[in-house]
Structure formats: structure tokens, C-alpha cells
Amino acid sequence: MRFTDKFMQSNIPFLCTPIIGKTKEELIDEIASVSLKNPDIIEWRVDYFQDIHDFEKVVEVARTLKEVSNDIPLLLTLRSVAEGGNPTSLSTMKVVELLVHICKTSFIDLIDFEINNPDEEIRQIKKAAIEHDKFLILSYHDYSKTPANEELIEIFKRAQTLGADVAKIAVMPNDHGDVLRLLDVTNQAKEVLQIPVATMSLNSLGAISRMFGWVFGSRLIYTVGANSSAPGQIPIEEIQRLIKTISTYQK
């Protein structure tokens, strides 16, 4: 069974662990360490890579990471500064060009692209993803607040309309009520969408959403293997133990 089929059919969340090395050597060390912890997906945050402007070097590193990843699926994410990413030298046009280019290789299995990008750019990425059998995550990040429930649902619907295989929302809570609202929206999404979602409330206040969001329908949990890429991520070993415990009592 292909990874994508497993993801779509599983009731247990998939665990994604980022690697954020600046050089090929740092990335190899990271992925060697992370892969031993058995995540379901390894996310390469390519916005941290110092040679991101050289597309062939990106492909070369992707090839090497695939070789040393123990066949764990690789997600490539180029997060924008506006949504919490590391600054890069790439223009918006070059970002799209790089993601289309990487879709044509066999080394990356999933692509993350932000839903706030123009529709035409999303369509270009989606076309490349379909043609080369890549899984597309359309993501939304708000590091200042948790938008109203209705707005969050509309973001999910837009992601589905634009062809996302998974819709991801990560938002900042200002109180526990914001965290509860996100869990409620996650639960509602199961009723209004035909695609899976991944949701997370950021920082320590939102950590509970990373631990228990999957019970409400979040299908993807971003965890720490070696280095964190966002505030509030929890070590993968702790999430693995928690899922095992909760799953035992849900039977």
C-alpha cells in the first residue's frame, strides 16, 4: 500500500518530524538521528538551507536525504517569513519554480504550500503534484491570533476547493478558549470536508492541541526529533507514548 493510501485510511495520526540544517552535512546528521525515532514523515524545512538558490543542490540533497531516511516519506516545506519561516533570497516566482522542479524528482513525497498564495500559483503547484504523484498540503499560519471559527472553516473549504490533499492550520492562542475553539473546528471539519486536516495551537498554551488534537480529527502531528521548527512542538517519543496509551483505552 502506498504511503498516501495509508495516510488517508488510518485512524491513528501520522507523526512528522522536521529537519532544519543549513548545510548538507548538518541535514545528514539530523536525518540520521531523526529516522531512528520512526516518524511517519520527515519534513525538510528547506527555507533554512543556505544553498536554497541553487536548485540542483536542493535536488542533490533531497536525493541524499532519501537514501539515508530508511524510506521514510519526505515532506519539503519552504515556509515564508510572513508565516514563521526563515528568510531566503528567493522571489515568489522562484519559490514556485523550485517547488515545481522538486515535484519532478522521485526524492520528495509531499509538498507544503501556503494557502495565502495566489490561486494561480497554487494551481501550478497542484498541477505538478498531480503529474508527479506528490501529496499536497495547503497550509495556513497565524502567529498573532486564532481567527474566528467561521474564518477557519472557510480556510479549510478553500484548501479543499484548490485541491489540497491535506489542509493544515496553525494558529496562536491568546487563552485556553482559543485552544478549545480550534479543537471544535477540527471536529467540525470532519462533517464539512472530504479531505483530512491537520491543526495545531502554538506555544506552550496550545501544546494540548498537539497531544490530543488527533482525537478530534487532526491527522498530522508535528513533533521534535532533533530540532524544533515551531513553538510548542513536543518530542516525538512523548507523543508516541501518548497515542499508544489513548489508543489502548479507545478500543
UniProtKB/TrEMBL annotation:
Pfam families with a match to the protein in the record: DHquinase_I (PF01487)
CDD domains found in the cross-reference section: DHQase_I (cd00502)
Annotated GO MF terms: 3-dehydroquinate dehydratase activity
Cited SUPFAM superfamilies: Aldolase
EC number(s) reported in the record: 4.2.1.10
Active site positions: H141, K168
GO BP, one annotated term: aromatic amino acid family biosynthetic process
Pathway assignment: Metabolic intermediate biosynthesis; chorismate biosynthesis; chorismate from D-erythrose 4-phosphate and phosphoenolpyruvate: step 3/7
Keyword Repeat attributed: no
Catalytic activity of the protein: 3-dehydroquinate = 3-dehydroshikimate + H2O
The keyword Amino-acid biosynthesis appears for this protein: yes
Keywords: Amino-acid biosynthesis, Aromatic amino acid biosynthesis, Lyase, Schiff base
InterPro entries linked: Aldolase_TIM (IPR013785), DHquinase_I (IPR001381), Type-I_3-dehydroquinase (IPR050146)
List of residues binding 3-dehydroquinate: E43, W44, R45, R79, R210, S229, Q233
Subunit description: Homodimer.
PANTHER family per UniProt: 3-DEHYDROQUINATE DEHYDRATASE
Family matches, as HAMAP family: AroD
Family named by the database record: Belongs to the type-I 3-dehydroquinase family.
Role this protein plays: Involved in the third step of the chorismate pathway, which leads to the biosynthesis of aromatic amino acids. Catalyzes the cis-dehydration of 3-dehydroquinate (DHQ) and introduces the first double bond of the aromatic ring to yield 3-dehydroshikimate.
NCBIfam families linked to this entry: aroD
Name used for this protein in its record: 3-dehydroquinate dehydratase
Organism: Robertmurraya kyonggiensis
